[in-house]
Amino acid sequence: MTLCVALDAMSGDHGSSVVIPAALKILSEIDDLHLILVGDEKKLKSELSHQSAKVKQRLTVHHAGQQVEMDDLASHALRNKKDSSMRVAINLVKEGKASACVSAGNTGALMATARYVLKTLPGIDRPAIITALPNMQGHSTHVLDLGANIEVSPEHLFQFAVMGSVLTQAVDNLPNPRIGLLNIGQEEIKGNERVKEAAKLLSKSPSINYVGFVEGDDIFKGIVDVVVCDGFVGNVSLKTTEGVAKMISHYVKQSFNQNLWTRFAALVSLPIIKNLRQKIDPRRYNGASLLGLRGIVIKSHGGADVLAFTYAIKEAVVEVQKNVPSQISHILATLLSERRRIE
Amino acid sequence: MTLCVALDAMSGDHGSSVVIPAALKILSEIDDLHLILVGDEKKLKSELSHQSAKVKQRLTVHHAGQQVEMDDLASHALRNKKDSSMRVAINLVKEGKASACVSAGNTGALMATARYVLKTLPGIDRPAIITALPNMQGHSTHVLDLGANIEVSPEHLFQFAVMGSVLTQAVDNLPNPRIGLLNIGQEEIKGNERVKEAAKLLSKSPSINYVGFVEGDDIFKGIVDVVVCDGFVGNVSLKTTEGVAKMISHYVKQSFNQNLWTRFAALVSLPIIKNLRQKIDPRRYNGASLLGLRGIVIKSHGGADVLAFTYAIKEAVVEVQKNVPSQISHILATLLSERRRIE
């Protein structure tokens, strides 16, 4: 099968005005990639009209008559938007016509639809959302779940750890990712019963590199490769990260824009600030994976620009190349039989 | 009664080497303040020996023979360290010999001891920890609970909102602080049952300025004055904030230290970076309050330096001047009768 990714071209704040340029950019970078734009056929084809036949061979259009709005309830999207660009893109994965799909649409609707259409992998009770965040070591730390699962059991946290471990192995080429459980202290007596029980399950699995409890600041230290938590805590932590970064960036801009002298300093510092921004540029971390499904679904930030959206497509490509879903199934089966042996 | 604050002089990473200079600094700023250094009398007196009689009138020493270590379990401190500087400082508040106390010691032990010695206010089931964080409006946002209560009920969240509202009124001179409940979406259908139920309780209380759900990034936007959450989520959010800020600061330093040119730019930008650092200097936000007790107890960061510790003492002074504990009782009683009337 050729490497083919379906793109929900009507999603996010900018729709096709971001998705098409991102698609063109990534096609110029990855030779054997085919992309399918899913959405309003007439609109998309007219937007592609000035493209060469060679490009159009690898960038085709698949019609979908509806679109999921950012404020649509998941249940509403599921029931009433069966011809949405989001749903049709996921259908293409289900039908084997695409190996993955990317959408910048409403997370709740995307998760519900993906779960309904693709189903979860054997051994996985609940899919989870994972993304990478930058850390001080110049690498990244994967964090899950980011909001799909508000109430979780220790077993769910265990499954998240397995999925996070597999994804990080695949995406970051790490042979044995270090897994930490997010808690409010590193001592074994700290935390709620769920994390304590999950810690026991993880400690009993020799082939998972579980290193213990970590705290919120450890996400950015690079002392673990994967941080596991429930979706409520993970979502708050992710949004807190965005909030702090935005506030600091706001004050940096304000400080360098006060008077002639500070503007001169800004000019002098420009290359440094650019370099700095590149290191922790949130666009480079765009592309959260919906893990645990029988198919690859990537959620782009709704406000993603062209560069950010290309990162989401790249995430999809890597996961296809590394065959993440079947690796998750395989490793989970091994771990569960390992656990049974020990018990 | 004179304005008198007891300082746990043996606490934190630096003990009296930070507490004494901070005490001297604040005494020079606030005329009618009396401070009691609690700890090893011989050591503290020798460290004060070169001070004038006039200073020593307002900076006295109260002996305590033990000290709580950073890794002492709360239960161990409570049972076996009855003569610790922490416990004795809290006892002084209980006995009315001090109006507040400040400690940089172990949070768990401080909360357990304060709760045991001082007891909670009528109507408060559980004390909570609150601190201020900087926001983009140039003001601060108070967040609670930060780790005292891992599992909470909607009623607890309601009480946290009341306590946070009173503290913010007192400390920030805000007549009607805006209260937000931390959630993973702003829509009413989002979140777990606890936050949904707490939202109902808060909506039914006209004299609480409840504005709705907020997300992690809203802490830093300044759209609410108080953010209410359980202690697990609050602690993760606080530590995440610290982690992101440290990572950005690490990359700023690294970027400005790469070569001759970047070092020149750093020199040019120095006043701007200083100004920026001042705006979001975590030392200015040092001093978390243990709210809901029959007395004022302030927790300083363990690693606090002299400047940071003075901010913790200032927090204590303001809470004494505004009589925060009795205001909490008073407003809580009003709210509960208001709620009963509505029901």
Give structural notes.
Two copies of one chain form a homodimer. With 343 residues, chain A is α/β, with parallel strands linked by helices. The first copy, chain A, has two domains: 1-120 and 293-322, Isopropylmalate Dehydrogenase; 125-291, Isopropylmalate Dehydrogenase (3-Layer(aba) Sandwich). The first copy, chain A, has twelve helices and eleven strands. Chain A has an eleven-stranded mixed beta sheet, sandwiched between helices. In chain A, strand 1 (3-8), helix 1 and strand 2 (33-39) form a beta-alpha-beta unit. In chain A, helix 1 packs across helix 11, helix 7 crosses helix 8 (193-203) and helix 7 crosses helix 12. The model of chain A has no long low-confidence stretch (mean pLDDT 92).
Question: What is shown here, in short?
Answer:
2 copies of one chain form a homodimer. By secondary structure, chain A is α/β, with parallel strands linked by helices.
> What structural class do the secondary elements of chain A suggest?
alpha/beta
- Examine the coordinates and then state which fold CATH places here, giving the name of the CATH topology of the largest domain in chain A: Isopropylmalate Dehydrogenase
Q: What's the N-to-C terminus distance of chain A?
A: 41 Å
Output the CATH homologous superfamily of the largest domain in chain A.
Isopropylmalate Dehydrogenase
Write down the secondary-structure element order of chain A: EHEHHEHHEHEEHEHEEHHEEHH
CATH architecture of the largest domain in chain A: 3-Layer(aba) Sandwich
CATH class of the largest domain in chain A: Alpha Beta
User: Helical stretch count of chain A?
Assistant: 12
Strand order across the biggest sheet of chain A? Answer: 3-2-1-4-11-10-5-6-9-7-8
Query: pLDDT below 50 for ≥5 consecutive residues: which ranges of chain A?
Result: none
Give me the Rg of chain A, rounded.
21 Å
